[in-house]
Structure formats: C-alpha cells, structure tokens
Specification:
By secondary structure, this protein is α/β, with parallel strands linked by helices. About 50% of the residues lie in helices and about 15% in strands. The chain has a single domain, classed as 3-Layer(aba) Sandwich (Rossmann fold). It is built from 10 helices and 8 strands. The strands form 2 sheets. A 5-stranded parallel beta sheet has the order 2-6-1-7-8. It has a 3-stranded antiparallel beta sheet with strand order 3-4-5, with helices on one face. It is globular, with a radius of gyration of 17 Å. The termini are close together.
Length: about 230
Amino acid sequence: MLKKIVIAIDGFSSCGKSTLAKSLAAKLEYVFIDTGAMYRAIALFFLRNGVSFTNEAEIKEALQKINLRFEYNPSTEKSDMILNGENVEILIREMQVSSKVSEVAAIGAVRDFAVAQQQAMGVEKGIVMDGRDIGTVVFPNAALKIFVTADPQVRANRRLLELKATNPTITLQEVAENLQHRDLIDSTREHSPLKKADDALVLDNTNLDRAAQFEIALNWAKERIARG
C-alpha cells in the first residue's frame, strides 16, 4: 500500500482551490478538508451573535460555544459544514459572510482555534486541505504544497458565475471589489498571512480549465506519493 501524505493547497480567493482539492481527494481517496468553510462558519456565528471583531474577551467566549464538523451530503456527494448541529453550507457562501470572513480569519484567537482543529484532522495523513496558510503554518512539513493563483479579472468573473445562482442582482464590480478587499486583508494580516511557502509549487490557472489544472496537480501528487 502506498504511503499516504498531506497535500496543502494555498492561494488567493476564487482561484479554484477547493474545486482542485476536492477532485484530488476523490481521485486519491483522501479526506478533503475545506478550511475556508470553517472560517466562514465562525464568521456566520459572530455575525448572528453580534460578536465584536475587536473585543478579545467576546471573541474567546464565542469560540468556546462553536462546534464545527463536516458531514457527507449524499445528494451532492460533498461534505457540508455543520455549525453547532446546523447545516450552514449554503448560508456561509452568501455575500454577507464573504464580505467579513477575511476580517474574522485575521483574528489571532480565531486562527489558533481553527488551526488546532485542522492539525488534529491531519495526524493520520491522507488528507487534502486548502486555505491561506496550510503550507506555511498548519502543515509546514506537508509532502506536497501547491500555491494556486490566477489573474484578478479571471477570478472575479469565475466568482460572479458562482454567486449569480443565489444572488442574481450582484454585479461584477461588487465581486471584484470584494476579492480585492479580501486579498489585501489575507496578505497583510498579522497572524498567518497568505503567502507562498518557499517549497510550494505554483499553479497559475488563468488559462487552464479544470481538467488541465487537475492533471498537473495529480501528477505532482503521484510523484510525491511515490517518493514515500
């Protein structure tokens, strides 16, 4: 039996990280862990409960009330985010959460809370995890690190197509401004900023379709798994 590894995928918003991670996990029969969904669920809880993003005591108290887990959804054949027993998979993808998730994810206590859970999930390896700091902070010793990027305009167009299904009135300008705002916060935050790990392989998918991107990443994964 081939030795299992940890695959860490980082990159900017709307680069297709989660899609790539899910596809790789399915092909390799690994567990996929969507860290973005975890931060989105925390943001949703904060918004619902009026938690101040700048009040450390409120934040720490709120985190003690949060239980996160993933649950397989047979209708979609994907894992949904469960927040305190409630399936919030659709809610966490809405613009209300998208506009605040980077601010919440920049909070040190929030990152410590999430990273501890993420590291526990990867103890036995055989996982694909995507996010902003997986290869730099969560799993700095991951056997394969991929940094995904794409042209900002391409990313905005892709994200617009995703959001139109649930928010038909949203505009390209709104989406582009949201992505720009998130990129700035993700890249400049004090705790675990978004950056490429020194040993990460860069995957620019500006001119690649999903199939082409997947083949590149899969070949990288097979090569690292073969190394043992």
